Amino acid sequence: MINKHSPFAPGLIGRSRKGDAVMSLFGRTVIMSAVIGIAACAGPGQQKKQTPISVANKQVPWQQPATKAQASVAVKVARTLSVMAVDPDHYQVARNQRIEALSSRPDDVLSPKGVGYYMEVLEAKLRQSIAGMDIGAVFQGKDIVIGPVEDAFAHGSVNLANEVRPMLAAVAPVLTEFSKTLITVHCYTDSSGADDYNRRLSKLRGLVIARYLVKAGVNGSRILVVGYGESKPVASNATAKGRARNRRIEIELTPLAR
Amino acid sequence: MFAGAALAGTVLLFGLVTWILWRETITNEQEKVAAVAQTLGRNTEQLMEDARNTLKRLNKLPAHNCSKAQLQAMEKAAIGHPYIRAIGYWHAATRLCGVGFLQTRALKPQHADHIYKSGVIAWWPSPQTEVDGVQLFLMRYGDYDLAIDPRTLLKTAPMKGYRIGLWVQNLRMAASPWDAKLPSPDSLQSGLTVDNKHNRLISRVSLDTVFPIDIVAVQPTSSLWSLYRHTLEFAVLVGLALAALWVYGIWRYGRYRLSLTVELRDALRKHRLRVRYQPVIDLESGRCTGAEALARWVRDDGELVDQDLFIRVAEAAGLGTMLTENVLSAILDELGGLLREHPQLSINLNMTPQDLESHEFQDLLSASLASARVAAQSIKLEITERALVNNAKVRALIRSFRKLGHQVAVDDFGTGYSSLSYLESFELDTMKIDKSFVNVIGKEAVTSQVILHVIEMAKGLGLDIVAEGAETLEQVQWLRRQGVQYGQGFYFSEPLPADEFCEFVRNNQAKVRPLIPARKWKQS
Fold first, then answer.
1. Contact present, B355 and B328 (Cβ < 8 Å)
2. Chain A residues touching residue B122 (CB < 8 angstroms)
3. What does R_g of chain A's alpha carbons equal in angstroms?
4. Do B118 and A177 touch (CB under 8 A)?
5. What CA–CA distance (Å, rounded) separates B482 from B453?
6. What is the spatial distance between Cα A36 and Cα A30, in angstroms, rounded to a whole number?
7. pLDDT in tens, B418-459
């Protein structure tokens, strides 16, 4: 099933907008390959306890060698979400593609003069929503970055930490309201386990976040997940504390402007 | 001289009064601006807090669909707060509905000035928030925004003749008139600055209670000047009165000095000065070795003139030599017999600087002694340390005095800061330690160190030492322990008239005994 000609394979999960037949086909191919990738990752590198993930109210044993049936569940999930998940290598291309797809209607984008007001009000609203949660929302250029949210997942798990849920719940309505933005979920892991496994794990975790947001009302086609695996640590992986800090997510909001 | 003093005093007085008033006016002005600033600061803080609370209340409204109830609630808030020009209800960057004067305007400035942690976002007045010539202050929280008219802030403060600006968090919030050109507070010192180039006064007051607030007030220099002029006019009257008092005082003092000079000249001419003799005692044997002759002047009205004062007057009037002559002739008249009888006694005669200026006095001294048949050894000459300054001439004179057989003592030693090497260049016999050093023996450690130094110096120069002003047994014992040979002071005797002094000498000669019993020495 792996499409060797696709520039995104094998690390891309996603679905383009409906009504674009070519993209749809292309996207499906990518989704399938990615899910298989995720399913395969749990093999030799990972001897840990199985941690099920609740997606669409189904217990999916992600970390077992994937059967065909489980792979297809993952495909279904990704398709329902309309979320794209990529490796860092494909981030720029995927991002441009997503923005282009989202900007196809002039009503969906901001005028260059309106960007400042839009983003600043968005930032203020984010700050209002997460006030008292010890999480920042700051400008990086024209983009706003929420986070980093550290220790967002337990070690080896794809289950959202309890502390993260209120934050996502608070942020989701704001993200829904300010729809003229691309939401990029940057996902990082600690260094336990193989490289490959960690990259897949991080993408999977990003998908969990995306799933949560979509359930809260955010349009999934605005979401792009980037799984960095263990490649960008912010603390030492030698200690449990450092590893917890490395298991983190950041949510980046990019204005859609002409 | 008195005219100079009177003029200088008057000018000084006027300068002082003018300066004090100027300071007073400046301080008043600063206080006035500070009071305005306090009011403004408080108002601004209240307004910002009030606006924030209004926004929070609006966000808690149950209905968010531009319903009649929601619009009514917004209207109520707008009417309840006179500074609010408009309230808007927003979805993201779309203004759904609102109330106020800016119904159809959706102000969307590109850059906010402050996004607070709480989620409050604020746009300071700028061209981007300008509506019909008024720059508005915008505040948004959640789904609502307020357009605030900053002019209402400045209306509350009394600002007659000022141009005034309000900076909140280092950004200009309001000014009166609203487009007034004002220097930024960063470029100003706190307090009042006089800008001579633009002929204006700038005040800056800063507050920092909830957030930093700066007030800049500008007024033309002329306004302060007119204020100052009023106080100055009053001050001129007070100054004139004070100056008159001063001139009168000077005049009185001048008259007194002048009349003293005239009277003194008269008294000297008529030999009306009296002389008192204070015995000088050998501390070892208790023997009287002589006395210092001290001039006393009692004016016609019976007032005893301070010795220092009339010596100063005499010196200033050029009557120094006449004074010394008077004393000398009194000594020879009154004590001539005693001195001839007891050649070992010597009477100390104080010399004035004038006496050291020429040989005139020396000739006179020799002639007087010869005619009275008193030996030169019987008259010891005292020269103040300060008179030793004119050294070349004085040195020669001292040498010739000593050649004639007089002893020479340096008086008031320790008050003139002479160095050892300087004194060494004079031929001296005796050093008299000033009474100010003797007075503090056993009282102040530091000065006692000085007297020790002076004694060492005298010993080093090989001089006899006479301590003046010895008043207590303790002082005498201490001096003797330090090897001081002679003493003079109330402990031994006060200055005596000639006959009493003769009596004193006779008694002293009759029963010469050690001044302090040997047993006592051991005890102390």
1. no
2. none
3. 18
4. no
5. 11
6. 10
7. 666 677 778 888 988 888 888 888 776 656 677 888 888 888
Residue A20, token pair as written in the block: 């674009």
Interface residue A108 vs chain B (CB under 8 A): no
In Å, how far are B124, B370, B408, B473 from B480, measured between CA atoms? 88, 37, 22, 10
Residue B358 per-residue DSSP state: S
Return all residues near B423 (Cβ < 8 A) that are at least 6 apart: B388, B410, B457, B461
Q: Which domains does chain B have, with CATH numbers?
A: 2-226 (no CATH), 271-510 (3.20.20.450)
> Does the beta-carbon distance from A127 to B118 stay under 8 Å?
yes
> Is the Cβ pair A179, B92 closer than 8 Å?
yes
Give the minimum alpha-carbon distance from B205 to chain A in angstroms, rounded to a whole number. Answer: 31
Which carries the bigger pLDDT value, residue B131 or residue A53?
B131
The residue among B91, B117, B124 with the most chain A CBs within 10 A of its CB, best to mutate, is B117
The pLDDT tens digits of the residues spanning B307-354 come to 778 888 888 888 888 888 888 888 888 888 888 888 888 899 988 888
pLDDT at A32: 37
Give buried/exposed letters for B77-107 (b at 16+ CB in 10 A, else e).
Answer: bbeebebbbbbbbbebbebeebbbebeebeb
Amino acid identity, position B398: I
Question: Encoding tokens for residue B402?
Answer: 């000593």
Query: Which tens digits make up the pLDDT trace of A13-48?
Result: 444 333 333 333 333 334 433 443 343 333 333 333
A111 touches B at CB < 8 Å: no
Position of tokens 């600043």?
A120
From the CA of B41, how many Å to the nearest CA of chain A? 26
Contact between residue B348 and residue B324 where contact means Cβ atoms under 8 Å apart: no
Distance of CA B261 to the CA centre of its chain: 33
Query: B134-135 and B163-168 as β-strands: parallel, antiparallel, unpaired?
Result: unpaired
Q: Locate tokens 């004062």: which residue?
A: B309
Helix, strand, or coil here: B257? helix
> To probe the interface with A, which of B60, B108, B138 has the most A CB atoms within 10 Å?
B108
pLDDT at B277 over 60: yes
- Is A117–B109 a contact, with Cβ atoms under 8 angstroms apart? yes
Contact A127 B91 (CB under 8 A): no
Mark out chain B residues that contact chain A at CB-CB < 8 A.
Answer: 90-93, 108-112, 115-121, 140-142
Placement of tokens 């263990």 in the chain: A230
Contact in structure between B350 and B293 (CB atoms under 8 Å): yes
Q: What is the pTM of this model?
A: 0.57
Q: How many Cβ pairs closer than 8 A exist between chain A and B?
A: 57
Residue window 12-41, chain A: list those with CB within 8 Å of chain B: none
What pLDDT does A15 receive? 41
Higher pLDDT, B158 or A117: A117
